[in-house]
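Model it.
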Amino acid sequence: MTSSAPPPHGQVTRSDVARYAGVSTAVVSYVVNAGPRPVAEATATRVREAIRVLGYRPNASARALRTGSTRMLGLVVPEIGNPLFAELAVAVEQTAARLGYAVLLVNSESDPRLERHLIQSLVARQVDGIMLSTVQYGSAVVDLSSLAVPAVLLNTFEGRQGVETVGVDARAGARAGVEHLIGHGHDRVALIIGDSGEGVEAREQGWLDATRAGGLDDGPLVRTSFTRRGGYDAATRLFSGPRPPSALFASSDLQAVGALRALDELGLRVPDDVAVVCFDGTDAADFATPQLSTVRQPVERMADEAVLRLVTPREGGPPRHSSFVPELRTGRSCGCPARPLDA
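Modeled.
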């Protein structure tokens, strides 16, 4: 029978809820945690009413001590202002929430030292797993295999020994985008690419694959930051000369948005004078003027896979690399009709 006693003062405990609802503390625990034992609906209703009246909030720290799990995951992104990483973070949070986890999001500002500090901070906060999305390449990437918690390298273009990795086939995606430009009759396709500092990056390799397969000379390229300003400066350099290329592939939506402004200032019309295709497929491409043709990364599928790797790990076997196929979504910037916004 429900107690008529007034709500207690101070912090409300599980014992207070049990006393108010006329049940044991174990039953309160079963209702709060949805198990492990079933509770009659009438009893569960009394417990939930007691929780509401008393304003009870379960102690997450105490639960973590009992279960060995904080039900929290860490996500490190390099630039939260970049629409790609913002959309990836939202997708990760939604997947984690469906599985009963919260996400602690931190921004490394593309600084490798800060990135390492943030990862160690997440480990110290006893998260159940860490997802790292980074713009570092090769040996500069943090060794996630040495961490004391499960970890996944997210939004990577290739596997890494000893580490769970999830990403896209960026080489194939870039090739598809450049081949589309060549199919429009362009025989000199420029590239704006992020500066990896180590060898030929996958999107650059895809650009080369397409141009060489089409019998074209290697077009001009500029290495720059993955930002609007980077795209603006790079496009200004590429298209200010006496023989500018007729098409451009940019390695990110933000670079392409910056390039559109530079082309406009140079008096070049898109797509009449210069056709443009980019890589990422965020809202930034949808709402650019003209609408950008883009190679879309399947962020929702990547997020699902990364979260599941952490919360339902395999028993035994080496770490795996999952590579999803990006999708070319044409728009007005390459000369195709505009696509619907909800496509």
